[in-house]
Amino acid sequence: MKQLDADILENLPGRIKKGETFRFRCHAGLSCYNRCCRNLNLFLSPYDVLRLKQGLGISAGEFIDQYTDALLREGKHFPELLLRMKDDAEATCVFLSDAGCTAYEHRPDTCRTFPAEHGLFFNAEGKKERILFLRPPTFCEGIHEERELTPEAWQKDQHAEQHNAMNELWGEVEALFENNPWGAEGPSGQRAKMAFMAAYNVDDFRSFIFESSFLKRCKIKSDLKMKLKRDDTAMMKFGFEWIRVFLFGLPSKTIKMK
Ligand code: SF4
Ligand code: SF4
Asked: E-assigned strands of 38-183?
């Protein structure tokens, strides 16, 4: 997440502006088919984790343990999750089969958007802007196909609206971690573990909300409480809000201290 001047943003290489089109079609007839599902660093957003664990029918904790590695990049203050690839010569994606992606319905946002990438920037006035870059690997033949797409048509084609919206919300929270919130206890302390759970692990975070003294200390509306019991996406949004309130002291309309 970066803050850029409007003119730098305007001229970023590969950027597809609103209303502009790009050519792309991916299909099994191309010799590059599935090549991009190998040798890649696939970072997973919290919402990617949520959708994949739902699709696989396992808990978020099981998914995180079995399928990911956490990485704290230098200069960053919050860990990211990488999908753990197969231990073969091409570091093949664990979800790739001869028939294609076995997780297709639940595939991560990066796979939906590829060969483009999203960015979320805050301009000098603090205004948020979602931008799209075309960044195909050199072997991608799909970009020479006839089909013309706008960024909006591509998002719709890939059913990426909900992923994009949730990742945008997460991007706003992640931007807060530009500042180190951990103080002396560092990024492996208790507060960091809680924040990781609030971001990535909706199942454990739900247990924390309903099985600890949280509801004695914080007031939330009863209809939201009901929703949090059964709706993973609502739970994840609540987790993001919890991070804003308890880690960064921001005001909230949703969570009130008693
Ligand atoms: S999740 Fe599916 S689309 Fe994404 S890299 Fe893996 S196999 Fe390819
Ligand atoms: S390299 Fe491009 S065209 Fe080939 S499979 Fe990947 S996205 Fe599709």
From this structure: 43-44, 68-71, 80-83, 96-97, 100-101, 116-123, 128-134, 148-149
Q: What's the CA-to-centroid distance between 31 and ligand 2, angstroms?
A: 9
Residue nearest to atom 2 of ligand 2 (CA): 140
Cis (ω within 30 of 0) for the bond into 115?
A: yes
**What is the pTM (predicted TM-score) of this model?**
0.93
Q: What is the pLDDT of residues 190-247, one digit of tens each?
A: 999 999 999 999 999 999 999 999 999 999 999 999 999 999 999 999 999 999 999 9
The two beta strands, 100-101 and 96-97, are antiparallel
